[in-house]
Structure formats: C-alpha cells, structure tokens
Amino acid sequence: MSSPMVSEAAPPPVSAGNVTGGQFRYFDYVMAAFVAILLLSNVLGAGKRAVVDLPFLGPWPFGAGILFFPIAYVLGDVLTEVYGYARARRCIWAGFAALLFMAGMSWVVVALPPDSGWTGQAAYEAVFGQVPRIVFASIVAFWAGEFVNAYVLARMKIWTQGRALWSRLIGSTVVGQGVDSLIFYPLAFLGAPGWTTEQVGWVLLTQWALKVGWEVLLTPATYLIVGWLKRREGVDVYDDATDFTPFRARV
C-alpha cells in the first residue's frame, strides 16, 4: 500500500476536512474525467481524419482524437503523482472496462436491424462500426501504455525525491506513449491493405512525437492541477512500498 509522505514542494498531510474515512475529496472527479475523456477521444476522435496545412510541409492528415487523447495521459500523470500508483491502477482498470463495454455496445447497436423508416444506419456504421482489429489494438495499447506510464512516473518520483516534476511528467509520457504507439500501430495496421511497413513506422513515430509534444505543452497546466490537488487533499503520496503488479484492484 502506498504510504503518504511529504515532498519538499508539497504541504504536510493534514486530515482536517481533506480526508474523511480514508476517502479523498477529488479523487472520484479526476477518475470520472479520466474515463470520460478516454471514451470520448476514442468514439469521437477515432472516427475522423482531419488535415491541417503546415508551413513548408503542406497538408498534414492526422486522427482528430490525437487532440484530446493525450489529456487522458495527463490525468493519468495527475492520478499517479497526487494519489499514488495503486489508485491510478484502479482508474486504468476502470477505463479498460469502459472501453470494453463501449466496444461491445457499439457492435450490438450497429448490428441491430434498422427500422425501414430510419435513414441513419450508414452514419452509425461509419462512426461506430470500427474494425475489430483496430478496436482490439486500441484497448491493448491503452492498457499497456497507461500502466507503463504510471509505473515510470511513480518510480521517478522516488528517484528524484519529489523534485523536478517536469522530468517525470515528460519522461513517463515518452516511455508510456512509446509503448502505446509500438503496440497500437503495428497491431492495427501492419499488413493491412493500403499500409506499407514504412508507412506504419512513419505514422508511429510522428504520432508518438505529437503526443509527447502535447505533454510538454500541457506541463504548466499539469503543474497547476497537481499543486492544487496536493494542497486541497493535504497529501503527497510516494510509492516506496507499493506492489506494482497491474493485476490487482485493491489499494
């Protein structure tokens, strides 16, 4: 179990109104935001390819979900940094279960025979009728990437003794998003019609770089959120005695 300790930058742990019966005041809200952004970025973002016209590069196509999916990683960082790996692990499993339910529900809804007077079946199939291979790749990549991200951040927090938050925010994202991308793109597209090995590798590298870039840009906001939550909750959790197995739901 994670043991609450105090870093140099965090306030001392206090119980006056901040922790009642072992429950944190804001943990449930952060977990709800984490799961909601995860689902919405997969449902809304995954169904659209967008394009921007970049200077010197010209039109640059990208999956719209990349604009919002990294926010789930930022919230994963917040959960691990403020509440510890064990509670972040529970949120990752909650997100994993929500993704599985979303995939199953999408399959059922699309497969149901439409009423003869309803004209929205084609639109439903276009948005929610995702290829099973891509859905499987997305879920597996999320699970592995998020756990690696949380583990690296928790370990780096101990190594850095709670200092240089930016280093573990960016460092954990580099590794976690790297694992996510290394699993997702080959599993989803390698050998698929219209995809060469070089294209898969190029998309993998560029999407990984964009996600890490988002983490760097959002680092100031992450600092503000982490600092505010630590002050409001009154704790700064270090995972010096945590069982880091991902196959456990209990804190």
The biggest sheet, with number of strands, parallel, antiparallel or mixed sense and barrel status, is: 2 strands, antiparallel
Question: Segments where pLDDT lies below 50 for 5+ residues?
Answer: 3-21
General shape:
globular
Q: Name the helicity range.
A: 55-70%
Written description of the protein model:
By secondary structure, the protein is mainly alpha-helical. 63% of the residues lie in helices and 9% in strands. It has 7 helices and 6 strands. The protein has helices at 27-45, 69-83, 85-111, 121-128, 132-159, 165-189, 197-233; strands at 3-5, 19-20, 23-24, 49-54, 58-63, 236-238. The strands form 3 sheets. The protein has a two-stranded antiparallel sheet. A hairpin with a 2-residue loop joins strand 2 (19-20) and strand 3. Helix 2 (69-83) runs antiparallel to helix 3 and helix 3 (85-111) packs antiparallel against helix 5 (132-159). It is globular and about 60 Å long.
